[in-house]
Structure formats: structure tokens, C-alpha cells
Design a protein that fits this description.
Strand order of the largest sheet: 1-2-3-4
Strand content: over 45%
Number of helices: 0
Radius of gyration: 14 Å
Helix content: under 10%
Structural class: mainly beta
């Protein structure tokens, strides 16, 4: 699967800070995957950024709790 990301900051050395999130279901539980990192301008295009091109990549998986009235 892909994680949609957007550029959140242009860094001074021709790199961009990106951030994105995707909801996943694992064993019937909902999680939110948050991906952040840096990408060089030459490795970025509008279609996708390969995870092996990310610099300082960080992935966080957060359990999403359901509201009490659901």
C-alpha cells in the first residue's frame, strides 16, 4: 500500500520535509500509520516517493480507539 504524503517544509539544502498518514486495519483493530521524513528534490515526483529514498524516515503506528457511542 501507499501512504499519501505532502510537503510540509522546504529545507535549505534542496530537500523537503514530508508527512503523511494512512488508516489500516490489523486483526480487526483500526490503526493510523504516520510517516515523516526528508526527501531530496530529485527523488520526489507528484506520483510517489519510494520509502527507500526517504532520509531520516520515521513511522509511527497509533491505535485508534472507537468512541464510546459507536
Amino acid at each position: 500500500e501507499t501512504v499519501p504524503v505532502k510537503i510540509v517544509e522546504k529545507m535549505g539544502d534542496d530537500t523537503y520535509r514530508i508527512r503523511g498518514q494512512q488508516y489500516l486495519t490489523i486483526k480487526k483493530k483500526q490503526y493510523k500509520l504516520i510517516a515523516t521524513g526528508l526527501v531530496r528534490a530529485e527523488d520526489f515526483n507528484d506520483a510517489e516517493v519510494s520509502s527507500n529514498k526517504l532520509l531520516e524516515a520515521q513511522y509511527d503506528l497509533v491505535h485508534v480507539k472507537r468512541a464510546a457511542n459507536e
